[in-house]
UniProtKB/TrEMBL annotation:
Residues 849-874 have a biased composition (Basic and acidic residues). PROSITE patterns: INTEGRASE. Residues 504-700 form the Integrase catalytic domain. Gene3D superfamilies: Ribonuclease H-like superfamily/Ribonuclease H (3.30.420.10). This is Transposase. GO terms for biological process: DNA integration. Residues 25-44, 849-879 are annotated as: Disordered. GO terms for molecular function: nucleic acid binding. Coiled coil: none annotated. InterPro entries: Integrase_cat-core, RNaseH-like_sf, RNaseH_sf, Transposase-like_Mu_C.
């Protein structure tokens, strides 16, 4: 990134106005305008940029992510920012013969600063841009072979800047995949020793055009594949990165070029293959194909040079300038409607494709007889003259219609009979309407109930109802996906959704080498573990699996439900096992993966994050399949497995898994480790046709071990992976220290009077309950627990298991104490209420009756006559009332 002085120098070279400088500075100093999220089928994520020193968001790994790679490794790009501040788009709308000024806010995908220009960038798929150009041709159109967005262009011009539209068709996917493969070597910038460079150059000189695979095989331990890729990344040896795929080393040729090739200069667009246009006559009524939609030419205004179009399928009108219309034709966006000859050819191919093996066999026999007859040969087969003449006629008719007589001899048995609906049109319409309204809704009515409603409807309209079997047939012919979506929702219908097939190969979904792509996910294992003599719990398993080799890189077993702590620990386990991390992590939308601590850890070590769409399990099928295999082949064969609990009503005390739990967290952790390393790692994967171990070792030999990506498993790394407790800070108690996980932790720095009774930031180690860390005096200080002496000398593996079990038992103990405290408190409250009742009883037994006397005659009101008792006015006329000698 540029410093303030460098930016001023760049702005002076660009001769920018003050308004333009303020606009660019506003972008440089502002955070992203929004947090992007993928759509239902988009894989979004964050790219950890070395150039910018921050994470860059992308909304799709097929559109925005390739653009990020182009900007990251383009030397002309000085800075680029994702989701720059919103800009106001102004336009005019014609309404009642008046042009009304309108506006809306717009957020571009990127803002890019290059050495000689600056511009906003919007990335779209080619299909989306074509659709936009049809809906709003005045805003989205192609000019000089490039897509333009008129409103964005107008906004940028006022600052002397530019607005570019990037289409997915401009992406060079070979270059993109090569950049992803060489990213570790490019960012590292390591150059091998001169002796190694000389050996590699000597091998290339001795065999010009040698392939990368041959170069690796002929190394004779004098150099490694990492050395070769280092030289390619530093342009010391040359391969064609734009056309040769480096992950196919057997076909990529290496050349020695003395001139330093700028192999990673980023092309702004890849040349689009121009399609030779077919003849399109601009005539009223002619049909054209624009994108996937058929359009009709309504009129050509030669005076204003505009073509007016109409689409019947979308009921839309469009008008295009003639030069734009012709450019769309030359670039293949507008095509002529298929000619009759092509239609007949397609029909011919369809007829042959629909024929069964038996049909073709019969047609071959007929063809042999007919050709002999037409050639004047004698036919001595058991065929009547009438049949022979019929076959010859069909052959000649097909020859005239399709240019091929063979298809006329194909049997037409499948076309026999009337396959049209026998229902009256009005009955069929009512039946379809009732099915759409009553069957395809969330009430999930049965077909029988829908049929009853149909009978009532037909009776009201006085039309003949269809049979129940006909209604069932109509329901069964509906799309399974549409029915499930309307009755149970989109997620339930996902299993019936069609698989998405890419028409153009972009990037392999599982990566092209080990540690390029890995998945992390959690599952609650189907087994009860023994925690205490009376308490069992089901553990949670977090797994990181390499997508290319399907090897389990790390796993973490805990009683705690998924949290960012599990994510931090799985990262720690991976580095402990392999001293490196994957380039990309594919994660779901769980909140634990969006933690600031977790994302900061990934950004610090340059790991990019991809988020798969919600409720789309196919995007994470590698790890989901692993969970299924682990349960089926291992967990479900252990005592205490919970398969029976799927039918809870059938579970009795004698078969309850909780009563058969014998495995502990420690024993299961050890057994899982052995199963992953010995059984699963050596089991043949049907997709790979080899075991994960074999695939891993084969890939590391070809793609390199990449020592420049190694991460030391030291105190610095461990401290980076430590999570914080809830609240992040703890109070320093004088003489005791900080309280964490039911224990006190102490260090010498806590003796400082300024530190006592203050709040300090705290981190703890889930693998070691004996220590914690406190941020004191601008540094992290290790604190030891009360039970540290009992844990000293244990291995990290032992500490991990001991820590998890102690923490869970403490949690249970705390819960039990809470219940006991409630019982004691309730007993005290009940006792106090009882005391109040006893006091009231004692008071009532000694308290005299209250009597009211008339102040005039002193007679007792209680013994007064009825006449006197009704004279209440006499009582309240006196100023004072005396009760037991007291005046009130």
């Amino acid at each position: 990134m540029m410093s303030s002085s460098e930016f001023e120098e760049w702005a002076a070279r660009m001769d920018l106005t003050e308004e333009a400088k303020k606009e660019i500075q506003r972008i440089r100093q502002s955070p992203p305008a929004r947090r992007v999220g993928g759509g239902r089928n988009n894989v979004s994520g964050r790219y950890s940029s070395k150039k910018m020193g921050v994470t860059i968001q992308f909304e799709s790994h097929k559109v925005e992510l390739p653009a990020i790679y182009m900007m990251e490794f383009n030397d002309d790009v000085l800075e680029y920012y994702d989701q720059p501040p919103k800009i106001k788009m102004n336009y005019f709308q014609s309404k009642k013969d008046k042009n009304r000024k309108m506006a809306y806010w717009y957020t571009a995908d990127f803002f890019v600063i290059e050495k000689k220009r600056a511009y906003w960038v919007e990335c779209k798929t080619e299909e989306h841009l074509i659709k936009k150009s049809q809906e709003k041709p005045d805003r989205y159109f192609r000019d000089n072979g490039r897509w333009e967005f008129a409103l964005g262009k107008n906004y940028a011009i006022q600052f002397g800047l530019d607005f570019l539209v990037r289409s997915s068709s401009e992406i060079n996917w070979i270059l993109q995949r090569n950049l992803e493969f060489l990213e570790d070597y490019i960012t590292n910038g390591h150059i091998p020793e001169d002796q190694i460079i000389a050996k590699i150059k000597e091998a290339v000189i001795s065999a010009p055009g040698i392939t990368i695979l041959e170069l690796i095989q002929n190394a004779d331990e004098q150099f490694t594949s990492d050395d070769i890729y280092d030289l390619i990344a530093n342009n010391i040896i040359y391969i064609d990165l734009y056309n040769d795929l480096i992950t196919e080393p057997e076909s990529v040729k290496v050349y020695l070029n003395k001139e330093q090739h700028k192999g990673f200069s980023i092309i702004e667009k890849s040349s689009r293959k121009r399609i030779s246009p077919k003849m399109i006559e601009i005539k009223n009524g002619n049909s054209i194909l624009w994108g996937d939609s058929a359009w009709t030419i309504l009129n050509y205004d030669s005076g204003n040079k505009k073509v007016f179009l109409y689409s019947k399928s979308t009921n839309e009108h469009a008008e295009l300038p003639i030069h734009l219309f012709e450019s769309y034709i030359s670039e293949g966006y507008i095509k002529a409607v298929e000619s009759n000859n092509n239609k007949e050819s397609n029909k011919l191919n369809k007829m042959i494709a629909e024929a069964s093996e038996k049909d073709l066999e019969e047609a071959n026999k007929k063809y042999e007889i007919v050709t002999k007859y037409l050639n004047g040969e004698n036919v001595h087969l058991n065929v009547t003259g009438r049949s022979l003449r019929n076959w010859v006629k069909k052959y000649n008719d097909a020859e005239e219609l399709y240019g091929n007589g063979f298809v006329g001899l194909l049997p037409r048995t499948k076309k026999k009979g009337n396959k049209n609906s026998k229902l009256p049109p009005e009955t069929e319409k009512v039946m379809n309407d009732v099915i759409d309204q009553s069957y395809k809704n969330i009430k999930s009515k049965t077909a029988k109930q829908v049929y009853r409603e149909l009978l009532v409807k037909c009776e009201e309209l006085n039309i003949d109802p269809p049979s129940y079997q006909t209604v069932c047939t109509a329901i069964n012919n509906l799309s399974k996906y549409e029915v499930e979506e309307s009755r149970k929702g989109r997620r339930a219908a996902y299993k019936f959704e069609e698989f998405y097939t890419e028409l153009e190969f972009t990037t392999p979904r599982h990566g092209e080498r080990i540690f390029e792509l890995a998945h992390i996910d959690h599952t609650e294992l189907d087994i009860e573990l023994k925690l205490t003599s009376h308490k069992t719990m089901r553990p949670w398993l977090t797994v990181m699996i390499d997508a290319f080799s399907r090897r389990v890189l790390a796993f973490y077993l805990t009683f705690e439900p998924p949290s960012y702590r599990s994510c931090m620990m799985i990262i720690r386990e991976c580095v402990k096992n392999y001293n490196r991390l994957p380039n990309f992590l594919v994660l779901d939308g769980g909140k634990e993966f969006h933690s600031v601590y977790f994302e900061s850890l990934l950004a610090f070590y340059g790991v990019h994050k991809k988020q798969r769409p919600a409720a789309k399990s196919r995007y994470g099928n590698d790890v989901e399949r692993l969970f299924g295999i682990a349960n089926k082949l291992f967990i479900h064969n252990l005592a205490g497995n919970t398969q029976l609990t799927k039918n809870v009503r059938q579970v009795t005390k004698s078969v309850n898994p909780k009563n058969h739990a014998i495995w502990t967290l420690e024993t299961l952790n050890e057994a899982l480790e052995n199963w992953f390393n010995i059984v699963y790692d050596n089991k043949i994967n049907p997709s790979l046709h080899q075991s994960p171990k074999e695939s891993y070792e084969e890939s590391i030999n070809v793609s390199g071990s990449r020592p420049n990506t190694y991460i030391s498993y030291d105190d610095t790394f461990i401290l980076m992976t430590l999570p914080s407790p809830k609240g992040k800070t703890r109070k320093v108690h004088p003489g005791k220290g900080i309280k964490l996980s039911y224990s006190y932790y102490w260090c010498d720095q806590f003796r400082n009077p300024k530190i006592e009774n203050s709040q300090v930031e705290v981190k703890y180690d889930p693998f070691n309950i004996g220590i914690a860390y406190a941020y004191v005096g601008d540094q992290w200080v290790e604190c030891q627990s009360e039970g540290y002496k009992y844990l000293y000398g244990k291995s990290e593996k032992q500490m991990k298991i001991i820590t998890e079990e102690i923490r869970q038992k403490n949690k249970l103990y705390s819960q039990n104490n809470t219940v006991t405290a409630k019982m004691i408190a309730q007993y005290i409250i009940d006792s106090e209420l009882k005391e109040e009742e006893l006091i009231n009883e004692n008071l009532s037994s000694t308290k005299p009756e209250l009597e009211v006397f008339d102040s005039k005659d002193g007679s007792n009101d209680k013994n007064a006559d009825d006449d006197n008792s009704n004279k209440t006015d006499d009582i309240y006329d006196d100023d004072d009332l005396e009760i037991f000698g007291e005046l009130i």
